[in-house]
UniProtKB/TrEMBL annotation:
Residues 285-305 are annotated as: Disordered. This is Heterokaryon incompatibility protein-domain-containing protein. Pfam families: HET. InterPro entries: HET. It comes from the Eukaryota. Residues 292-302 have a biased composition (Polar residues). Residues 172-348 form the Heterokaryon incompatibility domain. Signal peptide: none annotated.
Amino acid sequence: MYYDDNPFQTTHWTHPTSAIIASAKKGCVYCRFVIDAIRYFEPDEFPVGISSFLSPSGGCSLRVDYTIKGAVGVQVYTPIDQEPAWPGITHGPELSPSPDSPQAFKFIQSCLLACNENHKNCSMPPPQSPTRLIDVQPQGLRPTHVRLVETRSPPPSRADLEAQRATATFPYIALSYCWGTGKTLTTKTDNFSALKAGFLLSSLPQTLQDAVIMTRKIGQRYIWIDALCIIQDSPTDWEVEASRMASVYQNAFLTIVAGTAAASDEGFLQRAHLSTTEFKKPFQAAWPPPTSTSRANNMSSQERQKQNKTILAARLAFSDLEHSHSRTRDKLQRIPNPWATRGWTFQEQLLSTRMLLFTGYELRWICPSASLCECTYLQQHQQEQSEEARMDPLARSIFPMPLTKKGVYDTWHDIVEEYTTRSLTYGTDRLPAVSGLARVVRERLSNIQTGSDDRPSSSKYLAGLWEGNLTMDLTWRARFVAGKDSTSHGNAPRSAGSEYIAPTFSWASVTNPVCCRLSQPEWTQRCIVEDADCVVVGANPLGRVKSGFVTLRGHLQKSILLDPYQGRGDLYYTEPPGWGERFKVDPDQLLEEFDVSLSSSCQDAGKQGQMERSVRRMRCWAFGSGPMGVENGTPPRRVRSGAEVYLFLLGQTPGSRINERVKLAVYFIVLGLSADHPGKFERVGCATGEVDEGKLEELLRLSSRKSVVAVV
């Protein structure tokens, strides 16, 4: 492998390291540079293979594969103050040593300038101020102070009037950060007036202080911080302001993301970037390098003229995996990013029009027109992203809602899957923390209801599900997290706790991540939604609920659970009579058996008032603590083979085809009788499997009687 032409100007190549070494010994200056750079960064382990990738913009990156440490990225570039080593090569700026360095602020200024002047798709909406803001440069106060101002209430004084006029016409910054568990200054009923009069900046935790400092540095006067702009001990104010979260972040001039701080007292400006603390300095070599006579004979005249005229450099860089801000994409990240693990920050990410992210490695900028980073990786590679990646709503900050109902529902499924991987301090925030995104989805659904097949209520929100897509939404399944949920009781999803969060038909009723089966054009609904509703608690119509139900008409069949793992609890099977097939059952969490009295609404009149053993989600479970919990002095009875459940058929999609046999994939919700709501059911899991097309139609024809079930 000997290169007369520049291999870095080839779209892609992969070679074993031994071949590159052999080529370098023959005099290939490109291969020599690669080997020298790799030995500089990792002298103790030699890679098994090396790949080169060239972006359409000219950026070159290497993937170096090691046996022990895995893949490492290396960026090849010319320093910003040098002549390009060859046409199109990246001019790499110096990475900032810390977020508060001059280099970092130069990057911020360049991003703001480029977006304000060149990005037609990033035109900022007219400022619509939130209810309250923090004035970081209040008139009449020293720079050591800041002030809480109201933008909508009648001003009691001239100073408040001036502040209100200013906030009605000036943009504001929004802060996205992790609260953590420590104490922090918050706005409450008893200190509300004092904060409006002004307070010391130093009284704020470090993350909030850093946000104020950055707001001033950017040249803005106002910032929105939830801890200070929402009255935290007022349930009404909290609910109202939480319901307005979408507009707060959408209308912000810029969202500052404190990505490295796990708590509000940690700060994000004083942290040295990993590029200066844990990585070696960039490798640099004179270019073109001094060559032997034999190599010089093969050099072009242009190369001879440029002999030793510039610098070729390489530095450790992070790939697209580490440039992602999605929790599901963060599992292999080597950069700590606590912000990407929190539930509340997810909608702040998707709803923000422009974001400035402070990460452990560098600063990053995301807006509707561009994704930029200090190392230029995003600039180099965004042109080659696949159509799927460009349309992925989780890969950007701005929320690109599709124009069709199916597209909107599919996007919501993406949102739920990503959101449920994140953590919340309070389980009761499960629905409020995604209510801003739900509001955007509801508005889009309302705007596209123009076809004759659209139901007027298709944008009705039901504790995380949509009535217009309810049968598909009901097919969600809880999934366990290896390592997190592995206990002596198996890998089943854990309990949502004793506090009521949502009805059992909703994914919000469990605390584990959930998987949503995305809509398919071939989805065939096999039941009818007769009624559905939820009773909301408080002023946020898309927030907390205290009850809910769905009433369905369709095929209901009793069956028994088969436990192949003898009490592990995370997987069952069922073989409903007459179907001739075994279906997989995914429980919503650990299940238990219990005795329930059949009510007067029981469909079998001869059994009214009798006791029947049924299945429900386990109500008491000391997760990870060893023995099972106890409710009312009675330990739970673990579900074993033979436990009776009910299967309700939701719908079908095309399945596999074996020779001439056409299979259909069928989807059920698995139900148990409700002890708290006699005559109704509670969801305990979902079941899936395949059945012959003709067999399904025969079964449904023989079972002409449709059952009406209410799930709470």
